From TrEMBL, chain A:
<keyword id="KW-0732">Signal</keyword>
<dbReference type="Pfam" id="PF13501">
    <property type="entry name" value="SoxY"/>
</dbReference>
<feature type="domain" description="Ig-like SoxY">
    <location>
        <begin position="37"/>
        <end position="138"/>
    </location>
</feature>
<dbReference type="InterPro" id="IPR016568">
    <property type="entry name" value="Sulphur_oxidation_SoxY"/>
</dbReference>
<dbReference type="InterPro" id="IPR038162">
    <property type="entry name" value="SoxY_sf"/>
</dbReference>
<protein>
    <submittedName>
        <fullName>Sulfur oxidation protein SoxY</fullName>
    </submittedName>
</protein>
<feature type="signal peptide">
    <location>
        <begin position="1"/>
        <end position="28"/>
    </location>
</feature>
From TrEMBL, chain B:
<dbReference type="Pfam" id="PF08770">
    <property type="entry name" value="SoxZ"/>
</dbReference>
<feature type="domain" description="Sulphur oxidation protein SoxZ">
    <location>
        <begin position="10"/>
        <end position="103"/>
    </location>
</feature>
<dbReference type="InterPro" id="IPR013783">
    <property type="entry name" value="Ig-like_fold"/>
</dbReference>
<dbReference type="InterPro" id="IPR030995">
    <property type="entry name" value="SoxZ"/>
</dbReference>
<dbReference type="InterPro" id="IPR014756">
    <property type="entry name" value="Ig_E-set"/>
</dbReference>
<protein>
    <submittedName>
        <fullName>Sulfur oxidation protein SoxZ</fullName>
    </submittedName>
</protein>
<dbReference type="InterPro" id="IPR014880">
    <property type="entry name" value="SoxZ_dom"/>
</dbReference>
UniProtKB/TrEMBL annotation, chain C:
<feature type="binding site">
    <location>
        <position position="242"/>
    </location>
    <ligand>
        <name>substrate</name>
    </ligand>
</feature>
<keyword id="KW-0349">Heme</keyword>
<feature type="signal peptide">
    <location>
        <begin position="1"/>
        <end position="27"/>
    </location>
</feature>
<feature type="active site" description="Cysteine persulfide intermediate">
    <location>
        <position position="246"/>
    </location>
</feature>
<comment type="subunit">
    <text>Heterodimer of SoxA and SoxX.</text>
</comment>
<dbReference type="GO" id="GO:0019417">
    <property type="term" value="P:sulfur oxidation"/>
</dbReference>
<feature type="binding site" description="covalent">
    <location>
        <position position="204"/>
    </location>
    <ligand>
        <name>heme c 2</name>
    </ligand>
</feature>
Length: 140, 109, 285
């Protein structure tokens, strides 16, 4: 194929399609594996654990996120579209009344942030939030 | 020791016995993820704060394991019960072995 | 939320194409109070010299609630790390004269009001100077110390410290008298199209503010919040570094930070915000 301008456009838009599929969290198994390390594959309930996160993050470099997990002894956060899905894990001591915390995290693109909580009775809870990470108009 | 690392903590100076207070902490740190490359294409080695703990009079409040996905200048906000007067001790552990500490006293009146 | 329709230029039409109608979002109506005590004027009547804009808005209004929250408490504002670093430099003796900033100026708080009137005509130099230039004037002429790099971290932190003590005070740069010719040069630059994209500052920040440029909410390009901590590069950014980024994005060769052109542009852009509060260090995306 001769590299005409039109062909170049065809090639590069094809590449863009591949790239955008690659960026989708289709390979969530890394996150699943990391979660299974904690839970040993146990069933996870829902209800006691909540995440507060922006629906749209203006920049993926600094995304404010908080969680509330009454009755949890440990909460682990995962980002299922990051190159390494582990984000942080929080263990709560006796003096922690609310078992909640806020922090700021990095997200490589639009994806789910998953929280897994280990409860006092040894059971697990899970919840997740989808966060759209926008690409700004100006690189400046 | 990583450059320009400085912990900051916001804790009320007083509380009533058994009161729940909110604590904010922030440490200036690059949190180099290990995912980036320099201008020559070589990987920049990971260098992060990997653990943060908060204790009150020797009793743990929160113990956090940090991964490279925590943003530059790690920030945490959390609550603690204050049973009596005493000291909060905050500790940050750096990949390079450095340990940064900060203590804040609180009076129960 | 009022719909805006300012399709004055062909560029604006290009930006608008492919956007959902929900993308036409004006500045929001939130209120900025820092630390629960510093009231910030983020919306006010445009200064008389502005011909095409009635109301001026701080860039804070164009950011998401989450980004806005970063700036509402100094502990949550990572830009204050730079201010803290500069406070140490303020008291640090440097250069052949054995002086620090504090030797002449006392507490940094004594600089309250300074940021609000810069850039300003400097009689001795016979030209308009920026705050960063005055910091270097102090360093080389009074302290006998080395200049700091114009857009370097040490300088930008210092400008942020000097700005921080003026927060809440309205920007009020002089545009007449000896500053007038520089101001007019700045105005010309503001409306001059540059680069392969042939965009002027006005095309985005006057004709199209409130609209989306890709996923970014276009502001009026006010600089009352500079230096600004960007979530993107997690450091304080100077106005001239931002100008350079903007001009580069038009695919032009840019002027240099600290150049006469950017000094003039800074004076003109600052004057477009006369009446808004000094906010620096602000937080943006």
């Amino acid at each position: 194929m001769k590299l005409t301008r039109r062909n170049m456009i065809a090639i590069s838009s094809g590449a863009a399609v591949v790239a955008s599929f690659g960026a989708m969290p289709a390979f969530a198994s890394l996150a699943d594996d990391a979660i299974a390390e904690i839970t040993g594959g146990a069933e996870m309930g829902e209800g006691a654990l909540t995440i507060t996160a922006p629906e749209i993050a203006e920049n993926g470099n600094t995304v404010p996120i908080s969680f509330d997990a009454p009755g949890a002894v440990m909460v682990a956060l995962f980002a299922d579209g990051n190159p390494t899905p582990k984000v942080a894990s929080f263990k709560f001591g006796k003096l922690s009344p609310s078992h909640s915390a806020s922090t700021r995290i990095r997200l490589a693109g639009t994806q789910n942030v998953v929280a897994v909580a280990q409860m006092e009775d040894g059971s697990f809870q899970k919840t997740q939030a989808n966060i759209k990470v926008t690409i700004g108009g100006c690189g400046g | 020791m990583a450059k320009g690392v400085k912990p900051r903590v916001k804790v009320p100076k007083t509380a009533s016995a058994g009161e729940t207070i909110t604590i904010k902490t922030l440490i200036s740190h690059k949190m180099e993820s290990g995912q980036r490359k320099d201008s020559d294409g070589n990987a920049i080695p990971r260098s992060i704060i990997n653990r943060f703990t908060a204790d009150f009079n020797g009793e743990n409040v929160i113990d956090v394991t940090l991964e490279p996905a925590i943003s530059t200048n790690p920030y945490f906000q959390f609550d603690s019960v204050v049973p009596e007067s005493g000291d909060f001790k905050f500790t940050w552990y750096d990949d390079d072995g450095s340990v940064y500490e900060e203590t804040k006293s609180i009076k129960v009146g | 939320m009022k719909n805006t329709f300012k399709l004055k230029t062909a560029f604006a039409c290009v930006v608008a194409a492919g956007l959902a109608s929900s993308a036409f979002a004006d500045a929001d109506t939130d209120k900025l109070v820092i630390n629960g005590e510093i009231d910030i004027i983020t919306t006010t009547v445009a200064p008389a010299h502005l011909e095409n804009v009635d109301t001026i808005y701080s860039g804070w209004h164009f950011r998401s609630d989450e980004t806005q929250a970063f700036q509402m408490d100094d502990f949550d504002n990572p830009g204050m790390i730079g201010v803290e670093k500069a406070s140490e430099n303020w008291d640090t003796v440097d250069g052949s004269e054995g002086k620090s900033c504090a030797s002449c100026h006392g507490e940094a708080e004594s600089m309250a009001g300074v940021r609000a009137v810069y850039p300003k005509y400097n009689e001795e130099k016979g030209k308009v100077t920026t705050l960063a230039m005055e910091v270097n004037n102090c360093r080389t002429e009074r302290m006998g110390a080395e200049k700091w790099k114009y857009t370097g971290g040490t300088m930008t932190d210092m400008v942020a410290l000097i700005s921080s003590v003026s927060r809440g005070m309205p920007v009020n740069v002089a545009i007449d008298g000896p500053a007038q010719s520089t101001w007019e040069q700045g105005k010309e630059l503001y409306y001059a199209r540059t680069g392969q994209l042939e965009l002027s500052c006005a095309n985005c920040h006057e004709d199209s503010y409130g609209m989306m440029i890709r996923a970014d909410h276009l502001s009026q390009g006010q600089i009352n919040g500079f230096p600004t901590y960007r979530l993107k590069n997690t450091k304080l950014n100077s106005a001239h570094a931002r100008f350079k980024g903007c001009v580069r994005d038009t695919r032009a060769e840019t002027y240099n930070p600290g150049s006469d052109e950017f000094i003039a542009l800074e004076l003109y852009v600052a004057s477009r915000g006369n009446g808004l509060s000094v906010e620096g260090p602000s937080v943006r995306n």
